[in-house]
Amino acid sequence: MNTLRAVSLLAATLTMGLITGAFALYAHSIMPGLKTTDDRTFVTAFAAMDRAIINPWFMLTAFLGALVFTVAATLVNLGEDAFPFAVAALVAYGVVFVITMVVNVPLNDALKAATGSDFTAIRERFQEGRWVAWNLVRTFLSGGAFVALSWALLVHDRT
């Protein structure tokens, strides 16, 4: 059982690091880079990247993986010293998951579904500033979850 606890914490920490890195990459390079482009480039590039990121590799190893492995790590560490840190990570990432599904995904989907050649109007309806602000929240919360899981690993190793 001790090995299962360690492996679950390790998997949760690894996948949380991957998703945090993806959110951070958007926050510090992709969105600032796209911000400087014309409307047509922004709309077509963002839509293409969003289509590309929705793939089994990303979903299993990062976005859904972080959730599933953190739930597993929390459950198998019930009553252990690492448990409170796993719970903190789960709560933080649960908020990230909700933000993603309620804010970012609907904005992404609306941009991809937009038709016509008025790229200025499509970009304005996308609400770029709103997307960026909520992505920053996702970055900080998932980063906090990563720290909590890292600490859970340390606590687990000491017991």
Number of helices: 6
The end-to-end distance, rounded to whole angstroms, is 13 Å
Give the helix/strand class: mainly alpha
The amount of beta strand, in percent, is: under 5%
- What is the assembly state of the chains in this entry? single chain
Helix content: over 70%
Structural description of this entry:
The chain is mostly helical. It has one domain. Helix content is 88%, strand content 0%. Helix 2 (39-53) crosses helix 5 (119-126), helix 3 packs antiparallel against helix 4 (83-113) and helix 4 (83-113) runs antiparallel to helix 6 (128-158). The longest helix is centred in the first third of the chain and has 34 residues, at 2-35. The two termini are 13 Å apart. The model has no long low-confidence stretch (mean pLDDT 97). Keywords: Membrane, Transmembrane, Transmembrane helix. InterPro entries: Anthrone_oxy.
Topology:
Blueprint lengths: L1 H34 L3 H15 L2 H21 L6 H31 L5 H8 L1 H31 L1
Helix pairs in contact: 1-3, 1-6, 2-5, 3-4, 4-5, 4-6
Characteristics of this structure?
159 residues, mainly alpha, 6 helices
Quick take:
With 159 residues, this protein is mainly alpha-helical. The chain has one domain.
